């Protein structure tokens, strides 16, 4: 058995702080999933739910908005490796990651609830965009730019519109689904196979 | 001067009921724009704001959800005439109408506020989809189907994915704008010019 600086017996395994942080993130997510709005959340209530002291939360996050941003970010799929040999494969990987992270109805609800307050919590929405959204979009932008450089994509590619059509197509299925029918597992391929060659004969 | 059946003097012009209905719709929209959630709205408050009696509202709408659906529907651009000679022109008209109706920040706020409660008011969201959304999507679907029939579009067109990419691209710009910069006026054309011929060289 190992003892730390304060003489406390430490069992080997995950550090205490990492467990505490996971409990805090999980508590935040659970409370939003149960319907708590960002306005209704409090560090106090989250700490109680997570079984930690408030100081443990403040050690890592300066306030509830920072904590909610990290909680929402943890729900997003990791940016996939976009180093496949073809631009089509990288596009499919990117779209498939979007589809995968939308799979859980619970995740969709949480995102909707939190983002519905973006008028009242503009800083939260802005930080979430900076931390979670922009890096993902930039990764796709780089894939498309490499595609024009390699000659796989048209030299006059309108990169922003291309991104909007690829991402927008997947978002159309994941965000505006009219029902909870499962999405086809090959949806990323189908989107790539329409948008890359286009709709003309 | 004309008198009606009750002997009330009627000035020529818009019928009284049409003015009252417009006032009711406007009051509903204004109150949502000022931050009232659907939960917080009441027929009583809307009637007071519109300067009408509650019975005037109930004559046309069975409850506040029906009224909110009609109010939101009134914010959407009319389905444009999609009878242009080419499929490209019809696609551009459709996308341009989407762009036009998103132009007002106020309209976007109202839509967001009302739709953010779709978990709590599923009937409202469902009815709005039936009345306002589905007919518009069906109109675009018909355009694309006619395009494959006429040979302007590929015979193996994946219609649902094509709709998702066209609509999703415009929604990506209008719904997830990261700022309030004005959208380029030729955006509908740019989207059509990427998606129709595709991204390949």
UniProtKB/TrEMBL annotation, chains A, B:
The keyword Iron-sulfur does not apply. Residues 42-61 bind DNA. Residues 18-79 form the HTH tetR-type domain. Pfam families: TetR_C_11, TetR_N. Keywords: DNA-binding, Transcription, Transcription regulation. PROSITE patterns: HTH_TETR_2. This is TetR/AcrR family transcriptional regulator. It comes from Sphaerisporangium aureirubrum.
């Amino acid at each position: 058995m190992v003892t730390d600086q304060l003489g406390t017996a430490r069992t080997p395994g995950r550090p205490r702080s990492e467990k505490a942080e996971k409990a805090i993130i999980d508590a935040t997510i659970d409370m939003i999933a149960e319907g708590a709005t960002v306005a209704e959340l409090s560090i106090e209530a989250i700490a109680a739910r997570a079984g930690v002291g408030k100081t443990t939360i403040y050690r890592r996050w300066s306030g509830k908005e920072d904590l909610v941003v990290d909680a929402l970010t943890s729900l997003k799929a990791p940016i996939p490796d976009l180093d496949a040999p073809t631009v089509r494969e990288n596009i499919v990987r990117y779209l498939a990651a979007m589809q995968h992270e939308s799979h859980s109805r619970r995740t969709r609800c949480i995102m909707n609830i939190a983002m519905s307050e973006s008028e009242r919590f503009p800083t939260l929405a802005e930080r979430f965009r900076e931390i979670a959204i922009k890096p993902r979009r930039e990764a796709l932008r780089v894939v498309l730019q490499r595609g024009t450089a390699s000659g796989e994509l048209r030299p006059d590619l309108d990169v922003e519109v291309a991104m909007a059509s690829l991402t927008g197509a997947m978002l159309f299925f994941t965000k505006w689904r009219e029902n909870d029918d499962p999405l086809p597992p090959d949806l990323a391929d189908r989107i790539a196979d329409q948008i890359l060659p286009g709709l003309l004969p």
